[in-house]
Amino acid sequence: MPPRLSSSLCQQQQLLACLEAPLSSSLLGSRRPTIAAAAASLQQCFSHPTTTTTQKSSFSTSQPLERTRPQIRFHNWLKKSGKNHLRHDGDRPKYLYGERPDQPFPLNEHFISEPVLSDDARQRIWDAVMVDGLPLKAVSAQFSVDVRRIAAVLRLLKIQKRQEATGSPFIARPYAKTIMKMLPRAHLVRGEQPFEPINEIHVHSFTTQQIFEPVSETRQFTRADAAKAFGEHILPPDVKLRIPELIDLQKAIQKGVDPAQAEQDFIDKVADHERRFARRQQSLQRKEADNKIHFQAKRCEFRFEKINVDTVGKDGRARGGVGWRYGVPHNDRRRGLIKIPTSVE
Amino acid sequence: MRQRRLLRYHGLKRGRVRQTWNKYNLFNIAGLQVRESLFGKTFFQQKWKAKAMTRAYHGEHIPERQWERMFSKKFQTVINMNPQYMAANDGSEEAAGRGSGRKQLGEEKTSALHMLTPHMQMTYAPQERRLDIAVFRALFASSARQARQFVIHGAVTVNGKKMRHPGYLLNPGDLFQVDPVRVMLATGLKKEKAPPNKALKATPEEEESEEPVDEEESSPAEPAAAPAEPLDPHAAHQAMIQELNRLRLHAKTIVDAQQIGAKHKKALRQFMSNVKEAMAKARKIDPARISPKAGSSDTKLVDDLTDALAAFELGLPDKKETKPAPAAEEKAEAPAAEEKAEAPVGPVTAAVLAHKSNIRLNRDEEKILQRLLEQERENPYDPSKPYLTPWKPRPYMAPFAFIPRYLEVNQNICAAVYLRHPVARPGRSEVPSPFPHVIGQLAFNWYLRRR
């Protein structure tokens, strides 16, 4: 809040201003008139309307309000329901009153404060991946945590453990402990609600339209057919799932395969998938490394990359083209263009 | 000079809601009126009002023109699938009958698909990609403007590289990290301002004290020459001087023998200079006029200094109390741990050290004491920090504590990963907003009009 003059002070200043003219000649010695002396000229003072919000009518002699009405409401609120939020005790979240206890904004029922992974849950994920060596997708399915979140947890814990190993203390540890008490937490133990949906698919804008597609009554019109009807490049949800192997797992169980055996097959399958993915990444990296020549000079490293001049295309204006080309403007030094990087490697 | 738009930032009269953890803001959220503010207005006025209300909260520090460029009428929506159902059915059952699935008479579809998806609450979703707003959403700053300041001041890194653009749009998978001291400053209580002269005075004194001590060290024979008077009343006095000298030499052996950090060396030298001062005082006193009271005060001084040295030794490596292993090895293992033992000690440690010799605890008390000491080590008193130590959370913080699902946050290292863009799903929107769906609709329509 910006500092503001209290209304009573304004009142006194008005009084002073009113009294200034008659008193200035006679009472030079005592420049500050008392309230009693001022009361005589109150009438005259109020006859000129002023801008104060707490203005009383001209016949009133009561003291003006110290605070404005919103300020009074605010301070009453602070004393009553606001008092509950001053300090946080216990280890449960406490939000403003709303429809639900996990709703931070009373008017927005569509946004709720969902649980975050607790420290032990993060450690559990770490153990499953780094100690037991399970593939990410299997861990994701086991804990019902998104694969991307699993990867993020591992990345963050790696940084944390590296710092732990150096022995330097976590300055923010008291903050972390306190904030965890204020947040709803998930521990990823048995009997808990699933942490988050892991089989979500993005709603493609092509699939939001209504299409009249005449098909024969006897035809089995499956999800794959429906996807094709929306567009040639639209994939059916069976492929779009982040862990499509889960459908095979369920199919096997429904066929009567022993659930433990089906689960083992699922784990083998996703592990194989992960291995193939890693191999592909490695070969890509190797290819990139082969394309570059490193030369370590005294103070800096030179990197030479092989460039194909044909990337500029037939008209020499392709976006990926390299080098300065006649007639193609270089915009990277123009004024007023946004130069914020779009990605950080 | 403050900007004009910041003068009534948390004004009560208009009650605009902001992205801050301020108590005035909490009051404004609690008293937010929507129906009244839209009543009796034309459609245009309603849209204008909704836009004004929402923009006061969502990226109020972003210029309107810039936001208009960011706005997109496309939403990210997701639907959760059920693999069990997909395994049992190939989808043809949905196309059965007249093309929309067979249905029993009177049956109603009650799946999640038929819930309202609050797309209109996603109007400001593009802003959640901004680095400054993500830092605020990860609870690393107490307001979006503060988060912006952290970014501009170079306290935030993205994927390990310093990023000074608050308008940087995070990509899925980006890891951002904030300087923990800034986070503690933003979320902790304010430090009371210390008188400025003291801090300036303290440093040169300490540095001055080093040199005379060094000279003293070089002449260890000098204090040995002092015990020359063999008189009986002088015996206690001499013993005290000897004791002081012993302390000084002990401190010196610590400095010489062990590989300790510069901070500790400095503290030890300060200690030695204190001892030297005490010795000089003791020598000045005429031993013949020593009253029993004065003598007791002198012995108290010796005790104090002994305690201080013990405190220092205790504080050197953390494990020294529990494990009487060779000290040199421990230091080789954890050289950084030594830095942790600071010269200023907290109240619990000080109390323990003050009563170290004459304290007897049972097992439970020992445990409690250990826990308190652990707490103090985690959250130490450290006047060098810009926030109040030991750290305590700022008031009115809990009602604002929530982390949206598109972020994965690790508070210990003050880092977070931007997993994906915020999405809407049936019944839920991931964009944190204090306004109801109606206001979202109107604001969306305002921006739609111009596109």
From TrEMBL, chain A:
Q: Which Pfam families match?
A: Bot1p
> Which molecular-function annotations from GO does this UniProt entry contain?
structural constituent of ribosome
The domain of life is Eukaryota
Q: What GO terms fall under cellular component here? A: mitochondrial small ribosomal subunit
Which InterPro entries would you find in this protein's record? Ribosomal_mS45
Tell me, what is an example of a GO biological process annotation in this record?
mitochondrial translation
State the protein's name. Eukaryotic mitochondrial regulator protein-domain-containing protein
UniProtKB/TrEMBL annotation, chain B:
Check the record and name the Pfam families matching this protein.
S4
Q: Name one GO biological process term.
A: ribosomal small subunit biogenesis
User: Keyword Ribosomal protein, does the record have it?
Assistant: yes
- The Low complexity compositionally biased stretches are 220-229
Keyword set includes Lipid biosynthesis: no
The record's listing under PROSITE patterns reads: S4 (PS50889)
- The record's region (Disordered) falls at 192-229, 317-343
Q: Chief location of this protein?
A: mitochondrion
Q: In the record, what terms sit under GO molecular function?
A: rRNA binding; structural constituent of ribosome
List, alphabetically, the GO terms of the cellular component aspect: mitochondrial small ribosomal subunit
Cellular localisation: Mitochondrion
Mind telling me which CDD domains this protein's record contains?
A: S4
Start-end of Basic and acidic residues biased regions? 317-342
InterPro entries associated with the record: Ribosomal_uS4 (IPR022801), S4_RNA-bd (IPR002942), S4_RNA-bd_sf (IPR036986)
Bias (Acidic residues):
205-219
Key words, A-Z: Mitochondrion, Ribonucleoprotein, Ribosomal protein, RNA-binding, rRNA-binding
Task: Tell me where in this chain the RNA-binding S4 domain is found.
Answer: 129-189
Source species, domain of life: Eukaryota
Family recorded in the similarity comment: Belongs to the universal ribosomal protein uS4 family.
Write the protein's name: Small ribosomal subunit protein uS4m
**What is the organism field in this record?**
Podospora australis
